[in-house]
Amino acid sequence: MKTFFQALALPLAFNFLSVVHALPGGPWKPWRTGPDTNITDDVTIIPRQTSCISTGDQSTINALFSSGGANTVVRLCPGVTIPITAPIVFTASGQEISTQGYPTDSTRATILIQPGSTVTSAIRGNWQNNVKILNIQVDGNRPNAGYLGGDALLEMGGGTTGQTVSHTVVKNTRSWSCVHFIGSGQDNNPCRQATVTFNDVGPCGHEGTDPATGNGLWADGLSIECMDTSVTDNTITGATDGGIVIFGSPGTHVLRNTIVSTSSSGLQFGGINMVDPTWGANYTGVVVSSNTITGGPNSFINLGIGMGSQVWSNPHPETNFGQVTVTNNVFTGNIGFSIVINGWLGGLTVTGNSVSGVTTPSSSFASAAGCGSVQQASFAASQQLVYYPAGVTGSSGPNTIQPQFTALSTNASNWLCLTNPLPPLPDTKSFAPNTLSVDASVSRVVSLRDFHVQVQGDGNVVGIDTTGGVWTVKWASSRYSTNCGTDGSQCFLAFGIDGNLVMYDATGPLWASNTDGRGVEVIFSREAPWVSVMGAGGRVCGRLGICGVERLSRWKG
Ligand SMILES: *[C@@H]1O[C@H](CO)[C@@H](O)[C@H](O)[C@H]1NC(C)=O
Ligand SMILES: *[C@@H]1O[C@H](CO)[C@@H](O)[C@H](O)[C@H]1NC(C)=O
Ligand SMILES: *[C@@H]1O[C@H](CO)[C@@H](O)[C@H](O)[C@H]1NC(C)=O
Question: Closest by alpha carbon to 394, among 328, 442, 487, 323?
């Protein structure tokens, strides 16, 4: 247990301590405030600050860390914003950046990446033991500085122990993650015993890909490759890749976190991921308990908790393993699949997870049209808890999996296959005069529910029923032209400002409704009458006195 003494609680004799240092233990260890105080071996005394940083940039802060050495504390004044164009870098163990007085509200100082810079990591703390980021706000400024590939907004971890990120706001990363604890690649010196707690994370990333580069715009909230780490009591709102991604990390506990997707960032792939083969696919002792995962309104989470090598979009040959515990998590709102397990070895305990608050049916907020047949069947049945028994084998203990799980009889990989449902198409669509002009190079006049109308390169206008993916021509104007131009752009259907619906080719009108001066609206429908020109008092008939497909076909010849 670590106890912090604020400066004002110290005897006056300590006031001379204006140096900006945290003093771990040392000569003050035996000091006691009274009989009720529970003093432990690792008491840290934070001396009184005579000043805090109110202006400057990354150079100001980096100079203090470089000159101060180990345990230097850089305190930012409440309410200040420090613009940066390069990372803030911890240079020795035990260094800390925090807001003076450790506020937990909007007065926490803000580190803000500047537009025009090429920095993606605001703070680099990797490979320094016991460094701390406390009670500040770190803003990657993605809306203004833009998306940029690179390291995470907070880049921590490496071969270290005891790092802390706490009571900090981390949002708008430009790159692939808001907070990353990177592994060390060293078996004898892994990233270990970090604390990531009470942070407010997100939004992180966006849905979809960058049109210029094709790179995914999505980003994680917390990406943790660090063993025996506590990831607790964080709120992650608007991550778009994984809310919390556990990369192996034996012994890590992920408890009481709140993960919510938001419509402003779009579709979120995963709530908590245990899918990657990092750390040799070793998840021994990982505990994921009492987290709340919510698919927010007007958005959804594809996979609440994904467990195993066969669950994500990149199934891998290594089987994830280890006795892990996934208990008492609560899933609510729009979640496609709450827990899917396939590709695990080692004795799972998956119990007490609640899905009663998940929106049903799943098809009301997502589409499984891009999924395999097994996933489509589970989705259609709104199955929230599924596992493939042959892909979940126990070697170091029995599996205990709550009875609400559906056991799949067929192996299925890649459950990250849901998409936003297409908005429902209308049964009719209407146009006012001068709002419709479509040529045969564009072709599509309207898309209706299971129906569409197109202008073809031969001048023909056709209405097609597409129910079940089978195209059936329901009506055609059957007036052809050889004067549509090589790209079809000379043949076009227009509802003119005079209320006349006219089909033109390069030489002039092919046919018309002859409703000029009377037509106020043209209506396309998926049922007969397929096309109607309406007047102010109702249907306006053309020269043949018949509206819709009947008239169009009778114009033939
Ligand atoms: C002192 O701290 C220890 C370790 O956290 C704890 O077990 C014990 O209950 C505490 N005692 C009191 C009096 O708070
Ligand atoms: C998995 O990680 C645990 C914890 O570090 C370790 O004790 C165990 O040996 C590892 N298992 C394998 C097969 O590497
Ligand atoms: C399930 O399918 C994947 C991908 O084809 C395969 O790697 C895996 O071994 C299969 N699982 C079982 C238990 O057969």
Answer: 323
Beta bridge partners of 475: 463
What is the number of other CB atoms lying within 10 angstroms of the CB of residue 528? Answer: 13
- Protein residue whose Cα sits closest to atom 14 of ligand 2: 282
- Ligand 1 pocket by Cβ (under 6 Å): 1, 38
Is the separation of the CB atoms in 253 and 227 below 8 Å?
no
- Structure-token match 């114009």, residue found: 555
Helix (H/G/I), strand (E/B), else coil: 491:
coil
pLDDT at 24: 39
User: Distance of alpha carbon 273 from its chain centroid, rounded?
Assistant: 13
Only one residue has tokens 């921590």, namely 156
Across-strand partners of 164? 132, 195
Task: Say yes or no: CB of residue 310 within 6 Å of ligand 3.
Answer: yes
Cβ pair 245, 201 in contact under 8 A: no
Which residue, by CA, sits nearest to atom 4 of ligand 3? 413
Phi, psi of 59 (to 5 degrees): -65, -40
Mutate to test the pocket of ligand 2, among 184, 187, 247, 282 (most ligand atoms within 8 A of CB): 282
Is 8 buried (19+), middle (13-18) or exposed (0-12) by CB count in 10 A?
Answer: exposed
pLDDT for the residue 547: 53
| Nearest partner of 89 among 105, 67, 65, judged by Cα | 65
User: How many whole angstroms from 207 Cα to the centroid of ligand 2?
Assistant: 36
Ranges of the chain with pLDDT below 50: 1-35, 38-39, 41-49, 543-546, 548-557
Q: 395-414: b or e for each residue (b if 16 or more CB lie within 10 Å)?
A: eeeebebeeebeebeeebbb
With 0.85 as the threshold, say if the pTM is over it: no
Question: How remote is the CA of residue 38 from the centroid of ligand 1, in Å?
Answer: 6
Q: Tell me whether residue 159 is exposed, middle or buried, using C-beta atoms within 10 angstroms of its C-beta: 0 to 12, 13 to 18, 19 or more.
A: middle
Give the ligand at the shortest distance from the Cα of 374.
3
- Which amino acid is located at 6 in the chain? Q
As a whole number of angstroms, the distance between CA 373 and CA 350 comes to 26
Tens digit of pLDDT for each residue in 46-82? 444 458 999 999 999 999 999 999 999 999 999 999 9
